[in-house]
Amino acid sequence: MATAKRAKVKRIKKSNVVDVKAAAANDKQPPKTPTEVGAARAEGLRLYKLAGKPKKQDFIKVFGKKGVAWTWEQRAKAVELPSAEACAEKFQSLLKKAGQ
């Protein structure tokens, strides 16, 4: 039996083409310092307590499923309130309206 000759495959090297989207994805913001992270967390906890320590289901009733992961600023924008503190203060009234 004669063996079939295999055709040589010519390998082409990729030129130095830069993928702009991939390069932009690699441009990351510098990490926050521990004091910035701690201050942001403390503020979030303060607003959480101000809102009456709501449960996950309470956030879902008022803001929908994505509202659980939002910051208080994002929640305030969703219900058209001027600030995160105003949103936390009015959370219980928003919960009562959503429960009706």
Strand content: under 5%
Helix share, percent: 40-55%
Low-confidence stretches: none
Distance between the termini: 84 Å
The structural class is mainly alpha
Q: Biggest sheet, in brief? A: none
SSE pattern: HHHHHH
Number of helical stretches of at least 4 residues: 6
Question: Gist?
Answer:
Helix content is 54%, strand content 0%. With 100 residues, the protein is mostly helical.
Task: Set down the secondary structure blueprint.
Blueprint (H helix, E strand, L loop, with lengths): L19 H7 L7 H17 L5 H8 L8 H7 L5 H6 L1 H9 L1
Tell me what you see in this structure.
The chain is an all-alpha fold and 100 residues long. The chain has a domain at 54-100. The chain is built from 6 helices and no strands. Helix 3 (56-63) crosses helix 6. The longest helix has 17 residues, at 34-50. The chain starts with 19 loop residues before the first helix and ends with a helix. The relative contact order is 0.10. The model has no long low-confidence stretch (mean pLDDT 86).
Features of this protein?
100 residues; mainly alpha
